[in-house]
């Protein structure tokens, strides 16, 4: 009787085990077969917007990894995605199809994209008087830490028309030797913060630089999040800096964590007539790179990536500093000097 009683119990345990295993595997079966028949289609929009519609299909694939050929990557489970290229070029796109078991197959396609940039911000400085208040504000004083804006600069920034004015089609930022609030010089620092900022695109500024020894003009940008993360975590893009003591030597520089201050990431080029003629200082900025130019001549390239702070909105700054860590000793005979700006234009 004992043996007869045990048999049904044993059968019952086996039945439960089989049912449990069957239920546990339901819907979670791993497909160990690699993907096959991968097809990648790309349709470039004919409106020169940079938009490309991608469709990837494959047997046994559950997701697709796209390398857009410009340093940007994306995982697309459906295989269908539209990506907007920020600039013209010929790109090789690599697509990897993955099975649920992690096996892969890949295919590459090469295409040419033409992007026509649209003007999204400009100031041509055609209206005589003070700078356009809808586009520019002012930094005032000697810096939040009363330390010459962190660089031991010697000027006091004002919003006076003596230091910033528009006439004859140009913005004039003028540094003046005068005693003001404990400083020996005044000047101006204009910025588009809280009025205009942007992420990726092309910036062009046509300017004529001051020549006085000790002058330090700059055309540059800071990340919008500077108030929350501080500098250099916000990132800094110096499109142009110039020392009056080193005429015609143009600096293009990037500041970010690990590469800031005296360890910044930059380079220089020498041009002719920086202080007597207008030149175009520009930056071409995308998710994969930032390139700095003067008159189309490359100054420096930064390989951008998601680990750097250059993938957020930035605002523009125009200023003329005196002395400091970069500007150096000011000529004792200095009386005044002006940076003239013909226009500021931003394209996307």
Write a structural description.
- Strands 8, 10, 11, 12, 13, 15, 20, 21, 22 and 24 form a ten-stranded mixed β-sheet that branches.
- The protein contains four helices and 24 strands.
- The longest helix is centred in the first third of the chain and has 24 residues, at 2-25.
- The protein is elongated, with a radius of gyration of 30 Å.
- The chain is mostly beta strands.
- A hairpin with a 5-residue loop joins strand 3 (63-67) and strand 4 (73-76).
- Helix content is 11%, strand content 47%.
- The protein has two domains: 36-113, Immunoglobulin-like; 119-347, Jelly Rolls, CATH 2.60.120.200.
- The N and C termini lie far apart (88 Å).
Defining key terms:
2 domains, 348 residues, disordered N terminus, 24 strands, ten-stranded mixed beta sheet, 4 helices, mainly beta, Immunoglobulin-like, Jelly Rolls
Quick summary:
The protein is built from 4 helices and 24 strands.
Rg over alpha carbons = 30 Å
Mean pLDDT across residues = 92
Contiguous uncertain segments of 5+ residues: 1-8, 10-26
| The CATH class of the largest domain | Mainly Beta
CATH domain fold name of the largest domain: Jelly Rolls
**Which CATH architecture of the largest domain?**
Sandwich
Strand fraction:
over 45%
Q: Tell me the major beta sheet.
A: 10 strands, mixed
Number of strands: 24
Give helix and strand order, one letter per element, not per position: HEEEEEEEEEHEEEEEEEHEEEEEEEHE
Shape: elongated
Helices and strands in order:
Elements: H1 2-25, E1 36-44, E2 51-59, E3 63-67, E4 73-76, E5 80-84, E6 89-98, E7 104-113, E8 119-123, E9 137-138, H2 148-152, E10 155-157, E11 164-167, E12 170-180, E13 183-187, E14 189-191, E15 201-208, E16 215-223, H3 226-229, E17 236-242, E18 249-255, E19 265-270, E20 279-285, E21 289-294, E22 297-303, E23 314-322, H4 324-327, E24 336-347
Parallel strand pairs: 10-13
Antiparallel strand pairs: 1-2, 2-5, 3-4, 3-6, 6-7, 8-24, 9-14, 11-12, 12-13, 12-24, 14-23, 15-20, 15-24, 16-17, 16-23, 17-18, 18-19, 20-21, 21-22
